[in-house]
Amino acid sequence: MAKVLLENIQRKFNNVTAIEDITFEIPDGEFWVLVGPSGCGKSTILRTIAGLETATSGNLFIGDRLVNDIPARARDVAMVFQNYALYPHKTVAQNIAFGLEMRKVDRKIIQERLLTVARSLSLENLLDRKPKQLSGGQQQRVALGRAIARQPQLFLLDEPLSNLDAQLRDDTRAELKQLHQQLRITTIYVTHDQVEAMTLADKIVVLNRGRIQQIGDPQSIYALPANEMVASFLGNPPMNILPAIYKGDNFDISGQLLAIPENIKNSLNLHPEQICNLGIRPEHIYINLDEQSTFGRILQKNGEYREEVSDLLAEVKVIEPLGRETLIRTSLPNSFGFINVQVPGGVRLHPGERLHL
Ligand code: ADP
Does residue 42's CB lie within 6 angstroms of at least one atom of ligand 1? Predict the structure, then answer.
């Protein structure tokens, strides 16, 4: 097992900069997820760590060893891809043992490792099968097993679940997390799926256009995104981003005034009439079915409540029941785009109905 340190890693392809200024340190045993939209540089970072790609500049350490010039096979890392790349003519057992046999590991140790890995991935009953006799999820478990059997000091996973259907993806995701809890091998996991990032990661690295946007644990990134890209990328349904004009005590949103709570007011670094984007998560909006405007109670610094209009008149456009919750897509009069609101399931509303957010 090992810590991993990237220092100012940059990779150019001809004159295109794929990744730039990539600096982070992963402590030994942690599970980190690199997440971002397609083309943001996730795989390039992972492949550089694996040694399949050479950085144009910067330093890479695995453990205490500078590995810039160390070839992939000598880095002691195991990588799992989305296409499992199993040997089709070998059995599950042979696939898992192959890497160890190549390294001339003692027969007895190979047998022991094979059984331990098979047990931890529930593959004991499949050891004699060939890959084509396995489901996609089972094949992926074999690919993981092959990587684990080598007991690498570092695990690199590139979208390992993206070929699985939804249910299997959820189950395998949980198994992966459990496996990491048992083995504590330092793991770097690449995905474009923010749910995978949120559920698996000790720390998330959000990337966009080859640069790091934010590094943090899932909850703090969700609560305090560093910028609009991070805010809108993490969260499902995504954060509402509303164009607004700052008015000191209020935001003007498409001609309606929304009062700014006292506890936020002092931390805003805006000047009057400044145009800005307001981010509000769908689960932080409440609905009031009165068509008459209601008055919100706003807590002031001195602990007293001040009554103030703090809602927006909106119209229900689309209702999407999701079982436990319902997503209501509303819009403000005279404005384009939806404001999405997440409310408990079972709420009875109709398109065209007016309400206050
Ligand atoms: P991601 O994994 O986030 O989808 P990649 O790391 O694959 O992104 O790619 C990052 C950027 O680098 C993209 O703009 C991609 O087109 C470019 N890129 C990646 N590999 C190569 C290559 N071998 N030659 C030229 N450009 C590349």
Answer: yes
- Give the mean pLDDT of 141-152: 89
CA of 196 to the centre of ligand 1 (A): 21
Q: What is the pTM of this model?
A: 0.88
How large is the ipTM? Answer: 0.98
CA 2 to chain centre: 23
In terms of Cβ atoms closer than 10 Å to its own Cβ (0-12, 13-18, 19+), residue 353 is middle
DSSP 250-307: EEEETTEEEEPPHHHHTT----TT-EEEEEE-GGG---B--SSPP-EEEE-TTS-EEE
* 3-state secondary structure (DSSP) of residue 348: coil
Average pLDDT over residues 71-93: 89
- For residue 311, the model assigns a pLDDT of 83
Going along the chain from its start, the domains and CATH numbers come out as 4-233 (3.40.50.300), 240-356 (2.40.50.140)
Structure-token pair, residue 338: 């939806």
> From ligand 1's centre to the CA of 77, what distance in Å?
21
Q: Which residues pair with 341 in a beta bridge?
A: 328
- Residue 190 CA, closest ligand 1 atom number: 2
pLDDT digits (tens, 9 = 90+) for 243-280: 999 999 899 999 998 888 877 888 899 999 999 999 99
Q: Is 39 in the pocket of ligand 1 (CB under 6 A)?
A: yes
Calpha distance 131→129 (Å, rounded) = 7
Expressed in angstroms and rounded, the spacing between residue 207 Cα and the centre of ligand 1 is 13
Averaging pLDDT over each range in 133-147, 202-216, 330-344, which range is the top one?
Answer: 202-216
> 206 CB under 6 A from ligand 1?
no
Which atom in ligand 1 lies closest to the alpha carbon of residue 11?
A: 12
Q: What are phi and psi of 229, to 5 degrees?
A: -60, -50
243 lines ligand 1 (CB under 6 A): no
